[in-house]
Amino acid sequence: MSATDKTKNKADQLAGKAKEKFGQATGDKERENQGKADQAKSNLKDAGEKVKDAFKK
């Protein structure tokens, strides 16, 4: 996995976590769920990159 992809995925994950926490703090369930979805999407991208790396070896 390239460093750029790894950094981008981590930034997406952190943004999702921030969105989730903001939703929790304000009682906005929709924003909280969006944050959780963003984190899940980031984790899937990360897993996909790891699979690609495994096939390169």
What does this structure look like?
- With 57 residues, the protein is mostly helical.
- The protein has one domain.
- 91% of the residues lie in helices and 0% in strands.
- 9% of the residues are buried.
- The mean pLDDT is 91.
The total count of strands amounts to: 0
Task: Work out the strand percent.
Answer: under 5%
Shape: elongated
Global mean pLDDT: 91
Largest sheet: none
Describe the oligomeric state of these chains in a short phrase: single chain
**Sequence of secondary-structure elements:** HH
Q: Give me the secondary-structure category.
A: mainly alpha
Number of helices: 2
User: Radius of gyration from the CA trace?
Assistant: 14 Å
